[in-house]
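ok, trying the design again with the full structure, not the truncated one.
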């Protein structure tokens, strides 16, 4: 099974939602720092994180990514299990969320954890480290694949986009051939054939198609930037609920229909605040 987790960021803070318990962990009582994990991973994240927290209050850092680097160093000391050797991308992905001590706006760090064969240690690859600022006003992160909700965010899914490009390119090729058939045997044939061969229809169509996705994302960015933290929470919860319901329908509607079980916000002033969390029975 997979954990469906999403975090939306804007200048006001971070809203997180998950369909499984034990996904988001606050890492400090004083600093606004949290860690999201896949609770279905073979790595016993709950035990590992709680052992990390029992070491005492985490070191304060001006740069947010340094919190993730501290945890990465700690993971290299964890006693490993050979069963972790073949972790999938979903099972090994973790996300740090929060603020450095000098940050006004939130940041996030996307990390891929894997077992290194040579050292027999857990190793962290820092895939993405992004922060909200005056140029990057919104952002979002997910754990596991949200393929079924791609049309919500991008206006079209990757599969549909590629099929559309392929279909339109094939139609252009038919149109080219019709033109060549008309001018065949005339004095224009060579020149038109040269012009048509120089025209890269696939690249042009792909550029236009992806441009539409960029327009869709710009609209979403504009909306998210205007949201207060309560709006962000609602978006995060609805997004996870939509994702799990679509997955449920795609699987034939079998089994219990999951829903959002964890909700939390992370702000500069209040730190990590849980709205729904299994620890509190909410």
């Amino acid at each position: 099974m997979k954990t469906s987790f999403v975090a939306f960021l804007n200048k006001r803070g971070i809203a997180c939602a998950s369909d499984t318990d034990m996904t988001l962990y606050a890492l400090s009582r004083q600093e606004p720092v949290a860690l999201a994990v896949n609770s279905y991973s073979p790595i016993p994240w709950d035990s590992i994180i709680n052992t990390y927290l029992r070491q005492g209050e985490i070191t304060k850092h001006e740069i947010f990514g340094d919190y993730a680097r501290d945890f990465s160093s700690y993971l290299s000391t964890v006693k490993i299990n050979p069963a972790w050797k073949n972790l999938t991308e979903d099972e090994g992905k973790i996300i740090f969320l929060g603020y450095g001590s000098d940050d006004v706006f939130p940041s996030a760090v996307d990390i891929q954890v894997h077992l290194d064969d040579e050292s027999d240690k857990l190793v962290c690859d820092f895939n993405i480290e992004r922060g909200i600022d005056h140029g990057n006003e919104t952002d979002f992160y997910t754990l596991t694949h949200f393929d079924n909700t791609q049309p919500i965010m991008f206006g079209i899914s990757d599969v549909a986009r590629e099929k559309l490009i392929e279909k339109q390119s094939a139609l252009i090729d038919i149109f080219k051939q019709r033109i060549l058939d008309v001018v065949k045997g005339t004095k224009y044939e060579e020149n038109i054939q040269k012009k048509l061969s120089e025209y890269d229809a696939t690249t042009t169509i792909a550029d236009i198609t992806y441009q539409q996705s960029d327009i869709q994302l710009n609209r979403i960015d504009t909306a998210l930037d205007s949201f207060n933290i309560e709006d962000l929470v609602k978006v995060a919860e609805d997004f996870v609920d939509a994702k799990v319901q679509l997955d449920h329908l795609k699987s034939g509607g079998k089994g219990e229909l999951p829903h959002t079980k964890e909700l939390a916000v992370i702000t500069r002033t209040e730190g990590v605040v849980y709205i729904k969390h299994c620890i509190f029975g909410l």
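Keeping the full-length input from now on. The two ends are 23 Å apart (CA to CA).
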